[in-house]
Amino acid sequence: MVFTIDADIHVNDTPGKLAPYCEMPWRKSLELLDGGSYPYLQIPGFAPNLRQDPPIAGSPPYRSVETAADMRRELNELDIEVGILFPDHLLLFATLPNREYATALAHAYNRWLAEEWLQEDNGLFGVVLASPQNPEDSANEIRKYAKNDRIVGVYLPTAGVHPLWGDRKYDPIFSAAQEADLPVCLHSVTITTPQFPYQLDQFENHFARQVLSHAFAMMANLTSIMHTGVPARYPKLKVVFTEAGIAWVPYMMWRMDKYYNEYRRHVPFLDRRPSEYMRERMWFATQPVEEPDDPSQLVETIHQIGDDRIIFASDWPHHDFDHPKAILKLPMSQDLKRAVMGLNALSAFPRIPVPVAAE
Amino acid sequence: MAEHVIGTIADFPVGSSTVVKIRTIEIGVFNVAGTLYALPNICPHQYGPLCTGGVNGTMVSGPDTDWQLEWGREGEILTCPWHGIEFDITTGQALANPRFKVRQYPISVVDDKVTITLGS
Question: What ipTM was predicted for this assembly?
Answer without folding.
Answer: 0.87
